[in-house]
Specification:
This is MITD1 C-terminal phospholipase D-like domain-containing protein. With 244 residues, this protein is α/β, with parallel strands linked by helices. It has six helices and seven strands. A seven-stranded mixed sheet has the order 1-7-6-5-2-3-4. The longest helix is centred in the N-terminal third of the chain and has 28 residues.
């Protein structure tokens, strides 16, 4: 309520300042408005922190942080739709990460109907083939519709559940240490920007490593135990989205 009051007050002052002809008064009002804007931003940050349910810091090389261990308690029969925004669902291993997360969804969310994925496109791998395999399996075996949308401008990582839970992971789903992902993107856990200049030689090596697995199909079969997989350092925040 306080944040809304500040926002309304700022708008009133802005509208009034436009009618002022006295430069001294106008400068005074603009200075006051700047202070209110700063305070409103502080209140917004406090409001977001208040809604945080859990904050998990995963240290480098630690184990025991599978999707099931962390997220299962937030997945229930009230989850009908899931939105996943993650720019790094491109390599075979990253697509397998998505597969593992979808396994957890269909196991825990009995009323799940749709999964929406927004990611970046990678024409140097069989990304589209792998994701289409996953889409087909979800539809035929679990009656879950996977919608995939590609974009060239995506930096934020977020998973939004229809029960109001929002999951933000610094590294997205790709926080496990797997060889063919090591060169795929920046390992700085505070850097939310994609690498603009990937090392082409390393990328070629990654593609060669995956060449023998190009024909592999992704299907929900439950044969991964990520609790045993070492992790990269990352931070996970889980909070409840305010109703509007």
């Amino acid at each position: 309520e306080a944040l809304i009051s500040y926002q309304e007050g700022i708008q009133i002052l802005l509208n009034y300042s436009k009618s002022l002809t006295d430069e001294v008064k106008k400068t005074h009002f603009l200075s006051t408005i700047e202070k209110y804007i700063t305070r409103a931003e502080e209140l917004k940050i406090l409001s977001e922190k208040k809604n945080v349910h859990e904050r998990i810091t995963i240290e480098n090389n630690s184990i025991g942080y599978s999707y099931e261990t962390i997220f299962q308690k937030y997945l229930d029969s009230n989850v009908f739709n899931v939105e996943i925004k993650d720019p790094h669902i491109r390599t075979l291993q990253q697509c397998k990460n998505l597969l593992c997360f979808c396994e957890l969804l269909v196991k825990c969310c009995e009323n799940l109907k749709t999964v929406f994925l927004l990611t970046t496109e990678d024409s140097t791998t069989d990304q589209k083939l792998w994701l289409e395999d996953l889409k087909s399996g979800l539809k035929s075996d679990f009656k879950v519709e996977l919608t995939i949308q590609y974009t060239t401008a995506l930096h934020d990582r977020a998973i939004v559940l229809s029960n109001g839970i929002v999951i933000k992971i610094d590294r997205g789903l790709d926080y496990f240490q797997v060889d063919d992902d090591d060169d795929d993107h920046d390992h700085d856990d505070h850097d939310h920007e994609d690498e603009d200049n990937e090392d082409e030689d390393n990328k070629d090596e990654d593609n060669k490593d995956e060449a023998g697995e190009q024909e592999e199909k992704l299907s929900i079969s439950g044969h991964y135990d990520l609790d045993l997989c070492p992790c990269h350092k990352t931070i996970i925040e889980i909070f409840r989205k305010e109703k509007t």
